[in-house]
Amino acid sequence: MECQRLSLLHCLLFHGLILALLVTNGVSQSDKKSYVVYMGNQPKGGSSTASLHTSMLQDVFGSDSVTKSVLYSYKRTINGFVVELTEDEARKIAGVSGVVSVFPNEKKILHTTRSWDFMGFSEQVQRQTSESDVIIGVLDTGIWPESESFNDHGLGPPPDKWKGSCPAATNFTCNNKIIGAQFYRSNGLFNSDDFISPRDSDGHGTHTASTAAGRLVNRASLFGLGTGTARGGVPSARIAVYKICWSDGCYDADILAAFDDAIADGVDIISLSVGSTIPNDYFRDSISIGAFHAMRNRILTVNSAGNQGPGRATITNFSPWTLSVAASTIDRKFLTRVKLGNGVIYEGVSINTFDLKNKMYPIIHGRNAPNRSSTPASSRFCLGNSLNRNLVKGKIVVCDRLVSGSEPLAAGAIGALFQDNRPRDVARSFPLPASHLDMVDGSRIFVYINSTRNASATIFKSDEGNDTMAPYVASFSSRGPNPITPDILKPDLTAPGVDILAAWSLVSTVSEVSGDDRLVPFNIISGTSMSCPHVSAAAAYIKSFHPTWSPSAIKSALMTTASPMSSGMNSDAEFAYGSGHLNPLKAINPGLIYDSDEVDYVNFLCRQGYGTRLLEQVTRDDTTCPEARNGTVPDLNYPSFSVFTSSSTTVSHVFNRTVTNVGSPMAVYRSNVSFPTGALKIRVNPDVLSFTSVGEKLSFEVTVEGTTVESMVSGSLVWDDGEHRVRSPIVVFVSIST
Ligand SMILES: *[C@@H]1O[C@H](CO)[C@@H](O)[C@H](O)[C@H]1NC(C)=O
Ligand SMILES: *[C@@H]1O[C@H](CO)[C@@H](O)[C@H](O)[C@H]1NC(C)=O
Ligand SMILES: *[C@@H]1O[C@H](CO)[C@@H](O)[C@H](O)[C@H]1NC(C)=O
Ligand SMILES: *[C@@H]1O[C@H](CO)[C@@H](O)[C@H](O)[C@H]1NC(C)=O
Ligand SMILES: *[C@@H]1O[C@H](CO)[C@@H](O)[C@H](O)[C@H]1NC(C)=O
Ligand SMILES: *[C@@H]1O[C@H](CO)[C@@H](O)[C@H](O)[C@H]1NC(C)=O
Ligand SMILES: *[C@@H]1O[C@H](CO)[C@@H](O)[C@H](O)[C@H]1NC(C)=O
Ligand SMILES: *[C@@H]1O[C@H](CO)[C@@H](O)[C@H](O)[C@H]1NC(C)=O
């Protein structure tokens, strides 16, 4: 297959590069470098293993010349050592019984999939061996199982609790990384692009799965862009694939079937980067329903918020029992410069892997190149079939709108420039050299074109820039408030979702635009789809430290430890970023958690007007709503605070919350409320919580009172014991839409 040839080519280039270095540096085969000889766990009662390592080397090499170069012996948990060896010697050691593996002690490149490092979650973070007991169910477009990101080197068989399976004879093989894979297509209709198997023909599912739990892949890049080590947040966790999306979309029937299986199979976390475009009632939405049943089985569902931003109330996954994730930027951005014949250079945004080698090409405005049957009014936007091939062939076309680039490519253009006033916070890929410019630069280019006889231009391959303003929420990220229950703040938090490099399907092209023929093992894409698996991974990471925590406890930990973000950079404030920016490392030690279980969600639904009968049907047990609907039904113990007052600007609201101590047994937490001075008063009672044991629960009330004229005002409550800062946003708003 062409695709496999491509990955082979990468492999060959990779080795070719190393070979070239060896030759130019005059390094010979006999030169030594340091290797790690790994021998698994320490043997029981093993003493003085350093001497065992030495004698092992003596046995193999028959002299003490090698033993002198032992650099380090592992002594405590791991059995193994670091030693200087030639390649031949390394091979020899690898064959010795008891040796699990021998690998070069290379310097890791701290970059790429940049997003984890950006959050301070380095390759070296403390990890639990039980991470490989954590199973992330990924409901998506399937997976490309041969991707390096899914190799299972060093992973044992699936955990005992795993009850899922892998289909036989569908040209798809599971391993100890991808431990299960199913596909769902209730209508039985398949397009010619669809693999009738869990295999991913799109790339999306491969990308999300590898972002969550991909292994480390060195020197991953998209044609040199984003070069570094690609990795998921939990490289040892298992992936269970549930293919629910096909070339025509993702159907509710299939989504629910996948939830049904995933829950029974024993996944720990469900990652679902799929959503509708309109908000649905909680029990008319396959995702909300599926996630509700997952919650009943102590499985947390992590959802993308949606890509319908930046308008208010555009979020589509917002049920209280799921974790809804917005998308924000990281500090790496891709810039694509354009040079005109007059030497002036403009900087646009795109992911341009093409290299025009500084060659100048004629430049033309789409408006001046309408097809016979088209008009300048549509050719200026480079819409389908609008351009005249004879006029644009071999040229760079300027379009007055950000479009896919398929029309310029189809009409024979060599490149395209898009100029409009759309936000340029996301770099997109196009099937031809292209850059997205703002309208100021666009109009300067028009002046140049109009005033120059043989106007020309070139487009450079993209450069990586440092976005020092990051993180901020991307314009496309769907915003709150929650359209069904305004009193539950959504989204819950934000995570990296812009220009993320991760694994890709080898049959899908870089831009996914027809005419593009670039097939790649890694691709850079954006969306809340990309931020969601970052949070799924962080949830799995928590699970590996706290296997018994409930889905709400994990969610609370992620929310209360999120890094605060600035409303100065994000005009929608909490409606854009919820509790703030994901901080996986902090989330394993939150101090306090806002826990809730099934009965709390049922009570919440009762308050929302869902009757006992409906809830009985949902749960199929003797679930009943408490008699009284007002006041006596406890608040949902949510880790954030939101008050919506539609009718009046006078606010009087009491939140009742209970926190569970998961930090030090003896801990005194003091409350600290930050809120804009003026109109509203916030009181916390009691304002000190003194714990004497782990697992102890204490309740408190937060009272919001006063009048507000602003459409939205927000601040925070922090419980602080000197070690933990348990932070929750407090949002008061009087209008959903502005
Ligand atoms: C199996 O998948 C590979 C990878 O895409 C493809 O090249 C091959 O044609 C498939 N074989 C069958 C029998 O579908
Ligand atoms: C961007 O700049 C900041 C601050 O100077 C630095 O900490 C960070 O590592 C840089 N990021 C990249 C991707 O170079
Ligand atoms: C004009 O558009 C039609 C499709 O509407 C296409 O078939 C034709 O090739 C185009 N002609 C030129 C000169 O680009
Ligand atoms: C360029 O010329 C076109 C007519 O060919 C005109 O419509 C347009 O306004 C001119 N643009 C500028 C910036 O001068
Ligand atoms: C414009 O291009 C034509 C054809 O390539 C060439 O003959 C002419 O000299 C050029 N004119 C200028 C001013 O560069
Ligand atoms: C419900 O609220 C009303 C008004 O606050 C109150 O009069 C009534 O007693 C409450 N009912 C119950 C059962 O608490
Ligand atoms: C707040 O919740 C706690 C625990 O559920 C409960 O004991 C207490 O009565 C509640 N207080 C109010 C005012 O609802
Ligand atoms: C409360 O929080 C603010 C802002 O984070 C901080 O400046 C202040 O020192 C805190 N106060 C106490 C008593 O901890």
Automatic annotation (TrEMBL):
Coiled coil: none annotated. GO terms for molecular function: serine-type endopeptidase activity. The active site is at 140 (charge relay system), 204 (charge relay system), 529 (charge relay system). Transmembrane segments: none annotated. Residues 1-28 form the signal peptide. Residues 132-578 form the Peptidase S8/S53 domain. GO terms for biological process: proteolysis. Residues 635-732 form the Subtilisin-like protease fibronectin type-III domain. Pfam families: fn3_6 (PF17766), Inhibitor_I9 (PF05922), Peptidase_S8 (PF00082). InterPro entries: Peptidase_S8/S53_dom (IPR000209), Peptidase_S8/S53_dom_sf (IPR036852), Peptidase_S8_Ser-AS (IPR023828), Peptidase_S8_subtilisin-rel (IPR015500), Peptidases_S8_3 (IPR034197), S8pro/Inhibitor_I9 (IPR010259), S8pro/Inhibitor_I9_sf (IPR037045), SBT (IPR045051). Residues 34-107 form the Inhibitor I9 domain. The keyword Metal-binding does not apply. Keywords: Hydrolase, Protease, Serine protease, Signal. Belongs to the peptidase S8 family. PANTHER family: PROPROTEIN CONVERTASE SUBTILISIN/KEXIN (PTHR10795). This is Cucumisin. It comes from Hibiscus trionum.
